[in-house]
Design a protein that fits this description.
Blueprint: H1 2-19, E1 28-29, E2 35-36, H2 48-63, H3 85-89, E3 102-110, E4 115-122, E5 132-141, E6 148-156, H4 183-186, H5 197-232
Antiparallel strand pairs: 1-2, 3-4, 4-5, 5-6
Length: 240
């Protein structure tokens, strides 16, 4: 009987495997079991001008809240879902506003179905606003004939807005030119040497504290040793 049950179990497993074979290597399945083909990496170079031009116009309109209606055609349908063209034009959009004056970009990744850019935006110095890094995701939207890269999400990231190492190669600083930045406005000022006194002072204080602890322990050890010797010393009496 036990052998029959075991044989039935093996047969059941084989039936399940034949009916639902595992996905080929390199392919994944969604939680519902639908086959999801992995995206293929894509050379960003041929699409760079279109993507960066779109990102620049998106920042100038949607992010800066200037002629917002023009940005309606720059985003994928899913990003403007639930919004009318009229409400979008009024600035009621799912885009964080920022008074950007200059910007720099960094390519996070480039696939056939998705491109991701990290864009650091800088406001005018007089605004005293910190630079903010945004994660810009683009998808190829539209029909087969009219498909083009459009913005699908624009989300601020917790990344520090340091130097991405991307410039126009000529040091130019045209306003809001994605990939450029005015070094005269945002270059770090020469810091005073006085700030070095803080870490040096801390290190010196730690060294003095360590030396003090060693000195106290040495003194206490010597004192204890002398006391021990004095108590154990035999009295010297020449009369004995």
């Amino acid at each position: 009987m036990a052998g029959f049950v075991a044989l039935a179990g093996v047969a059941a497993v084989l039936i399940v495997l034949i009916k639902n074979p595992p996905p080929p290597p390199g392919e994944k399945t969604s939680p519902g079991g639908t086959l999801v083909k992995p995206d293929v990496k894509m050379n960003f170079g041929p699409h760079q001008d279109q993507v960066l031009g779109l990102a620049q116009q998106f920042v100038l309109t949607a992010v800066r809240r200037n002629n917002v209606d023009a940005s309606w055609e720059m985003v994928c349908p899913e990003m403007r879902q639930g919004y009318s063209r009229q409400s979008w034009a009024k600035g009621e959009i799912p885009v964080v506003p920022y008074p950007a004056q200059f910007a720099k970009w960094h390519l996070a990744y480039s696939y056939q179905r998705e491109i991701d850019l990290q864009v650091a935006l800088y406001a005018k110095p007089e605004t005293k606003l910190r630079p903010v890094v945004f994660d810009v995701t683009l998808h190829p939207c539209g029909g087969h004939e009219s498909k083009r890269w459009l913005v699908s999400s624009f989300i601020p990231t917790p990344s520090a807005s340091g130097d991405f190492g991307t410039t126009d190669g000529e040091g130019n600083s045209s306003p809001i030119a994605i990939g450029t930045r005015d070094p005269a406005l945002y270059q770090s000022k020469r810091a005073s040497g006085a700030w070095l006194a803080i870490p040096l002072g801390i290190m010196l204080g730690m060294l003095l504290a360590a030396l003090g602890i060693v000195g106290v322990r040495t003194y206490m050890g010597k004192r204890a040793y002398n006391t021990y010797v004095r108590e154990r010393r035999m009295p010297f009496d020449p009369k004995v």
